[in-house]
Design a protein that fits this description.
The protein is α+β, with helices and mostly antiparallel strands. It has a single domain, classed as 2-Layer Sandwich (Ribosomal Protein S5, domain 2). The chain has four helices and five strands. It has a five-stranded mixed β-sheet with strand order 1-2-5-3-4. 26% of the residues are buried.
């Protein structure tokens, strides 16, 4: 198997993954998963598609991750891994879609409008 690559995005985060056959190592920006995401919840989010298909120990994943916060980065990485797994075996797409791992979450921060303190907030109204 050659190197399979895929991209995942969430909010401002972009994850580029390169999947090769191996023993289950996940390397993010030249650091291990446990070092990059110390939180066990974020590690769980990243590994969800691998655990669903029971292939966590089958592939080595090398990741370039930039932008956004840690939650957005973890979810971008989850999407990228799911897309790479679909490239490897198209039959897995139905299971990943049912779990919601193939869908790109389009929600992002709304832009700030001119003459307002934030995107939707108004300055205090004064009648007199």
């Amino acid at each position: 198997m050659e190197k399979i690559n895929a991209v995942g995005r969430r909010k401002a985060a972009i994850a580029r993954v390169f999947v090769t056959e191996g023993n289950g190592e996940i390397t993010i920006n030249k650091r291990s998963l446990e070092v990059y995401f110390p939180s066990s919840i974020l590690q769980f989010i990243v590994k969800q598609p691998l655990n669903l298909l029971e292939v966590a120990e089958k592939y080595n994943i090398n990741v370039n991750l930039c932008g956004g916060g840690y939650k957005g980065q973890a979810e971008a990485l989850r999407l990228a891994i799911a897309r790479a797994l679909v490239k490897i075996n198209a039959d897995d797409k139905a299971a990943l879609r049912a779990a919601g791992f193939v869908t790109r979450d389009p929600r992002a921060v709304e832009r700030k409008k001119p003459g307002r303190p934030k995107a939707r907030k108004r300055f205090q109204f004064s009648k007199r």
